[in-house]
Amino acid sequence: MNTMEDYLNQLKSAFAEEDIEDFNALKEDLLEQLAICLDEGQTEAEVVARLASPEEIAADYYADLSLATAINAKTSVVPREDIQNVFIQTQKKRMQKVIKTAFKVVKPLLLLFLLTSCLFFLVYIIKELNEERNLASIPTVLSLFLLALILQVSKGWFIKKQRIISVIAIGLAGFGVGLLLFFLVTGQSMYTGRQYYKEINLTSNNHVAFSFDSDADVEITTVEVSSTEKPSLMIKGKFKESDIKQIENASYGNKVDLTLDEENIFDIFTRTGRSEVIFFIPKGTILDDFHLGLNCGDLRLLDIQTKKFDLDLFSGDVYAKNIIADEGHVDSDYGDVIIEESAMNLTVKSVTGKTVITEMLGDLTIEGDKGLSVLKFLRSDNVVLNNHSGRMILEDSEIKKLAATATDGQVIVKRTTGALLLANESGKIVSEENQGTLELKNISGPTIAIQESKVNAKVSSQSGFIKWLQDPSQSLNVTASTETGELRNDFSEVPNDENYKIEVKSQTGDVKILEKVE
């Protein structure tokens, strides 16, 4: 049947004479649908081919008619089971029609998605072949599967060649399965690059700068060598061919500026593994810049003198010792940062990692979120510590000015000299055996101060508990007040020393000034 006339003649023969008016209504609908399709550029044969057979349409019509008759009849002459069966079959056919209609609507969108995905993987394969000399195994397999799906989805538009298209689709899918098994057995499912080793020797000890960035896993070490040697760099590990080409073709002079394993959308199926980089720095050489930007790595940095010291690390640990720099920046989201015996003005940013800095000379700023900061033996003009909910501990340091603030974390300062400001919102403040001037501010968290020596201090809180323990042998001018909380001041009758004043205020919290008992 290639014409609508033939189709309608067969459909009419399936209708009873008394139902010819319903047939004529159906005929008008079909002719109207044909006219619309012809206007859209479809052929009459294509429209007729997509219609259900005349027998199916007639069967649906009489099934609906029987169901309506059975439901509306005053006297039931049809068994209940038959009515239920007719209803279920009718609903199934209607559901099938809904699904077919929905598929016709979704089909172009699905085909567009499959074509876009296939095009992406084809570009991936071409790029990998051109730049890496490697057949991208997984994109190749996925391309074959996608081509098979595209053929299956679109074969309905090719009525005379559906069987050939199905055979081709099955062949592509089978070939894809075979390739996938081969790649899995041979361990070639991911591109891993090739093993590579390179020593890069610089030409001068003057104005030396090292800059190295990588999104892969890297272990980095610095080694101090004899002052008679030239700065150099050793690279070892598995690298992509494009990175090896970059290393080989770069000109260095007295500077190294490399960016390797840079992540992009065409590296989804690349796994080069951990590489190793060693910087050899002659003793006494002052670098213009030392920069490392890594996504993941472990750093062991020793004996570096540089104008700029810059580390940007997403995850991994940093251990640095004897770093002398004009300025330093360390940004580590999830790793631990340990810096010992160094001198520089340093800024550290950390999200959840641990920061440990000991025996450092220079100004320090630490911006944290949830991590732990441990600072000991600092000699600084200015120290700024900001932490959201982590823990900050400062001990045995000499600081001209300290500002330590938190939201709901802990601020602990012990045996430190200077103008000390400790502020918190709902967390805990602990001050122990500090000297200089002390200002403690807490909104709702507890504040605890322990002092043996004299100190000038101001302590304030809105609703938090305040506890001050003081050596009873010291004469102090202590004033304490709270509006609605409990108040106790064991030093209210102690002779005052006007040189040292302690002022404690709270709005609604309890205040206790107690004698320290050994």
From TrEMBL:
Residues 215-367 form the DUF4097 domain. InterPro entries: MFS_trans_sf (IPR036259), Toastrack_DUF4097 (IPR025164). The keyword Kinase does not apply. Keywords: Membrane, Transmembrane, Transmembrane helix. It comes from the Bacteria. This is DUF4097 domain-containing protein. The chain crosses the membrane at residues 105-126, 138-158, 165-185.
